[in-house]
Amino acid sequence: MIKTGTVSYFFRDQKGLERSLDSVSWSASPKIWSAGCSAGQEPFTIAIMLAEKMSVWKFKNLTIIATDVVEEFRERIRKGIYAESEVNAVKTNRENQHLFKKYLRVLDDGRYEVVAKIRNKVTFTLHDILTDEPVSDNFDMISCRNVFEYFNIEEKQGI
Ligand SMILES: C[S@@+](CC[C@H](N)C(=O)[O-])C[C@H]1O[C@@H](n2cnc3c(N)ncnc32)[C@H](O)[C@@H]1O
Questions:
Q1: Whose C-alpha lies nearest to ligand 1, atom 14?
Q2: Does ligand 1 come within 6 angstroms of the Cβ of 45?
């Protein structure tokens, strides 16, 4: 049975994510799979962090495939727009202030839009992790954070 939820936020467990990103030997065309991506906060956070870490040419070649079982996330990720309440944690976190200002643009209606440079890196595909359907191949990194809690023991073992 598929259980779904939308709990996700920008810069979630930033230190842990930072360690994971720093441990990867990136290829010339880095490719990441964000599996169970929710409304895009995780893949966009990864893109923001890599925009800061990677050389300009390597970042240019970066692609992030974001997948989830919830089809509505496709449009949310394409637009990259978040209500103020959804970005509050980033907005009020001093450590991230410079990244927040650099990569999230405030709109006239008070919502926040992820800038095109970051938005363009992330493509959504509808996908169920519990199936054997391939998403793509040759990933430099697969991120599947806070998703296994949705699965029972047999499902976890199957993965
Ligand atoms: C708690 S959110 C985690 C989002 C993000 N990875 C993070 O860490 O912030 C879990 C996500 O997994 C998705 N999910 C649950 N079961 C799934 C499945 N079988 N295949 C793909 N995604 C699934 C949910 O729809 C939800 O968006």
A1: 36
A2: no
Amino acid type, 130:
L
2 lines ligand 1 (CB under 6 A): yes
Cβ of 133 below 6 Å from ligand 1 = no
CATH of the domain at 31: 3.40.50.150
Q: Which residues, other chains included, contact 72 with Cβ-Cβ below 8 Å and sequence gap of 6+? A: none
The whole-number pLDDT of residue 9 equals: 87
**Domain range for residue 146?**
14-128+139-150
Residue 3 included in any domain: no
Is 1 inside a domain boundary?
Answer: no
Residue 136 has pLDDT above 60, yes or no: yes
Per residue in 102-128, pLDDT (tens digit) is 999 999 999 999 999 999 999 999 999
Closest Cα partner for 64 from 134, 118, 24?
Answer: 118
pTM confidence score: 0.94
Residue at 119 is within a domain: yes
What span, in angstroms and rounded, lies between the C-alpha atoms of 69 and 138? 22
Give pLDDT, residue 3. 54
